[in-house]
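Page 42, continued from yesterday. The earlier attempt failed because a stray header line got pasted into the input along with the sequence. Redoing it now with the clean sequence only.
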Amino acid sequence: MARILIVDDSPTEVYKLTSILEKNGHQVLKAENGADGVALARQEKPDAVLMDIVMPGLNGFQATRQLSKDAETSHIPVIIVTTKDQETDRVWGKRQGARDYLTKPIDEATLMKTLNAVLAG
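This time it went through. Structure tokens are written below.
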């Protein structure tokens, strides 16, 4: 069982992701924006982060960059989960330090396969 931090401002998306993760035996932490997500990741040291991009304040790209550049949190894999499906967004997300990039609506099998891969290293 892994501890997964969901950073997303959509209650519907958080609910969907939480349902999938809990059904697969994971513990879920939640943050509604990038700044809270970075703070919670520093405090709780989750096993992985699912990061939305479009959020008020600190967006997902900025939050991912902060987590990947900080010695305290750089070991935590970040998977971007967003509606933004342009190739430039994918490239930029990876440049910020994301280990993977998934687009919504998210498919349970794809999410779990990707999550298991980043958790395995």
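Notes: The chain has one domain: 3-120.
Reminder to self: strip header lines before submitting.
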